[in-house]
Specification:
The protein is an alpha/beta fold. It has 8 helices and 7 strands, in the order ααβββαβαβααααββ. Strands 1-2-3-4-5 form a 5-stranded mixed sheet, with helices on both faces. Strands 6-7 form a two-stranded antiparallel sheet. Helix 4 links the parallel strand 4 and strand 5. The radius of gyration is 34 Å and the shape is elongated. It starts with 14 loop residues before the first helix and ends with a strand.
């Protein structure tokens, strides 16, 4: 520049990228300490996260209200046939220190041993922890599980959980468990993913309610007694008996209730004189 000032390269960041970075940081920080001492909510969140994985079916907590579970916080079925147990190895104020990593690893080994001892039919084991582990550390734990005879093992560390919670399928879980609202961009993503399903649930729900109300009204009115039924036949002129002879008429009766568009029984009545 003419005044002798030099300007270094400046990296411009879009507002959207900044918002996404803030939300990612917020989720990561909340996972570290937001649920400290709240084991019940930890189990509910991890159960919901595992249920999003289509490979797992019948995902449920062993003790929905908390309590001793023998190292088996979650039960599930993997690929339709493999019995799976899950353990929650969260630590308070997680900081990924060596001590916290050892606690998570110890939790994995202790709960794995407890699960195998309690149920010899176990085929798979899953650990949830809010401590970040390296790929090598996770591989080491998985190898120990396979050496114990398990067919499958998986570890959801903090980064893995964060990726699920920040995805379109996990935003509702993130809000319920960590109290993190959706940004405008995330709301657009969420409703693009689930908008049609939500609308369908609402429409189907009202339709079922209307059917139930109609049925209740019909059953209520069905109990009303029919004391008298009178039909008057008006001819175009007077006839004597010999002139008119035999005749037949048909009458169609339809009962309608305008409020719920409920149609009652229909009678076809014939008469001869």
């Amino acid at each position: 520049m003419s005044d002798g000032l030099e300007v270094e390269n400046v990296k411009l960041v879009s507002p959207r990228s900044q918002r996404n970075s803030v939300m990612t940081f917020g989720t990561d920080e909340r996972l570290k300490s937001y649920l400290d001492t709240n084991q019940l909510q930890r189990e509910r969140m991890c159960t919901a996260v595992l249920a999003l994985d289509k490979r797992f079916m019948n995902v449920r907590p062993r003790h929905p209200r908390g309590g001793p579970d023998g190292g088996r916080d979650i039960e599930a079925i993997l690929n339709g046939e493999q019995k799976t147990y899950g353990a929650i190895g969260f630590v308070n104020q997680a900081n990924d220190s060596t001590d916290h990593k050892k606690k998570a690893q110890r939790k994995f080994l202790d709960d794995l041993a407890s699960a195998i001892t309690a149920d010899s039919e176990i085929n798979a084991f899953v650990l949830f922890t809010n401590v970040n582990l390296t790929a090598a550390e996770k591989d080491t734990l998985i190898q120990k599980a396979t050496k114990r005879g398990l067919a499958y093992c998986e570890i959801f560390d903090r980064e893995r959980i964060r990726l699920v919670l920040d995805g379109a399928d996990g935003m509702a879980i993130r809000f319920q468990s960590l109290g993190i609202p959706m940004s405008e961009a995330e709301q657009a993503t969420f409703f693009a993913r689930w908008g049609d399903d939500i609308q369908s649930v609402i429409v189907d729900g009202f339709s079922e309610i209307k059917k139930s109300l109609n049925r209740m009204q019909f059953l209520q009115e069905m109990n009303a007694p029919l004391d008298q039924f009178l039909v008057l036949l008006e001819l175009d002129r007077e006839y004597n008996g010999n002139e008119i002879g035999h005749f037949r008429f048909f009458e169609h009766e339809s009962r309608r209730t305008a409020r719920w568009a409920l149609y009652g029984d229909v009678w076809n009545i014939g008469s001869r004189t």
